[in-house]
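queue> holo job accepted (fe (iii) ion)
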Amino acid sequence: MDKNIFRNLSYGVYVVTTMDGMRQTGCVANSCMQITSDPAVVAVSINHDNYTNKCIKESKSLAVNILTENADMTLIGNFGFQSGKDVNKFENIPFEWAYGNPVLKDSTCGYFAGDVIGSYETGTHTVFFVEIKDAEVKSGTPMTYAYYHKVKNGKSPKNAPTYLPEEKDEKETPGKKWVCSVCGYIYQGDIPFEELSEDFVCPVCKQPKSVFEQK
Ligand code: FE
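queue> job finished
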């Protein structure tokens, strides 16, 4: 079976947001689709290991923020490559409220939010069915998952349904670049990578210098 066929499916890049008690949290998702139009119901797939999964099960409500092509990689890193269990992902993120959920003010072309009306457990992910109660369209071009990979040079977190362990960037020149093995960020600073302080952390996923690999 050639799992690369799934790269020919279309996906977006979304930040799924919810509440952790009184605290805002969320994560990046790429598997989200509309199931019915009236009432409007969408399905969203979230890995069991994502802290957001547990929070959605408790709050029974979520919002899907549709990222635009100009969304910064650090925004994706903030929501996609660290756990809401350990950090407040909304600490430096401007947000407003939609149906009881925090939604991003910037870098999105809109959102929809609503109640979880059901779910299905797969081996690794929960598929949440959400009846939409609030939605807003903003400006901007939605980022596709293909754009995220090809133009933004982004990677799939291990928790993503679309994660393929053999992922490689065909454009790479071997031995020339220091690449974060966690998020795919390529170091492009003026100081040679070897001379960076040991305190250096990946600006996208905040992992230490030691996770960088020369490729
Ligand atoms: Fe990183």
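queue> The chain has two domains: 3-150, 168-215.
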